[in-house]
Amino acid sequence: MTPPDCGQGIRWSVPATAAAVAFTRRRVVAQLLFWGFGLTEETAATLELLVTELVANAIQHGEVTSGTVEVGVAARPGRVLVVASDSSRVVPRARGAGGTEESGRGMQLIEALADDWGCELRATGKDVWLVLSLPEEAAPAPTGPSAAAGAPDNAGHRAVSARLPRPVPVAAPLSHAGLRAS
Question: In the chain, what are the domains?
Answer without folding.
Answer: 8-91+106-142+170-179 (3.30.565.10)
